[in-house]
Amino acid sequence: MPVAAERASKQGPSQDGQNKSNDHAVGTTQAPLTGSWVAYLKGLVGGDKKAPNVGDDSAKKTPLSKDPKASTRHGNEVVEPKYTDVGKQVYKDGAALGDVNQGYLANCYLVAAMGAIAMQRPDLVESMIKDNGDGTATVMLYTHDQALAPPGEGKATPVRVSLKMPSTDGKNPVYAKSPTRELWPSLIEKAYVVLYKGGDYQGANTGGSTTEAMSAMLGTPSTDFALASKSDDDLLTTLTGLLKSGKPIAAASLDKEDLKKDAALRDLADERQVYPWHAYVVKRVDAKAGVVELHNPWGSSHPSPLSVADFRKLYQWVYVGHPKAPKGTP
Known about the structure:
This protein is an alpha+beta fold. Helices cover 24% and strands 19% of the residues. It has helices at 108-120, 122-128, 184-196, 210-218, 232-244, 256-261, 263-272, 308-314, and strands at 19-20, 72-74, 77-79, 82-84, 129-131, 136-143, 155-162, 165-167, 223-226, 249-253, 279-286, 291-295, 306-307, 315-320. Strands 1-9-14-10-11-12-13 form a 7-stranded antiparallel beta sheet, sandwiched between helices. Strands 5-6-7 form a 3-stranded antiparallel beta sheet.
């Protein structure tokens, strides 16, 4: 069953079509443990500073955080995973979009942000986590608040957590996970829960802000804009330019209530395999063909490539991370 969540008020786009630090949010969960898809309800839809290198004892000076409360509620169902040794490998061959899958938690906003950053700036993801070699890892996140604005930056905040993850089968993480059995997605999610969600996975199970998640990882302000604020051509040009410049991008699909009111729109969403109130990674844009390709953070059920017209019909917000340029870049 889905977890209902409160939606914050929306902020209108500024003159340049982008908002600083969003107020709107998304949140859907991955498939239930039974394997059938959940129903969908609306939900609350950083930087080049490197974490200490592997073998550097400085990260061990960070106090070890208590494992977050692992149980979560999904309607009438309560999931009670146990902390389990699910592996030791933080990275296998670097970070990539295909490494991260959303688990049984309504935090598409966070997992889509992770995937978008890993696709565009894997170097930043790879610099975020230091394996301490003692069954713990230190994750570098950034504190921020709604007032964060250029040239403001979040405060670098190391979060040290154990490598053990909540699991229901004694082998695999039940929340964020990797099909390649790398721990980095689970570690970032766990550290995020510690720092931002009161040390309780249920706090991340009620949706959240994609731009705030990006800022927490990048340490810099993220922006958003409404698709309705741009023409088809302007949207294609904007997305193409952002991807080319290395910006991580995510997009939020329509409200479930919008689909209820419009049978044709609902049929289009079903045909294109677009789920409401869900955050997706903007993976590729073909401006010449007028096509947008999106990636579902579940790691499956990806939408078919969308014409820009259908993209504008089925999605409402675009979120953009603004990482610092790599060192040595003019």
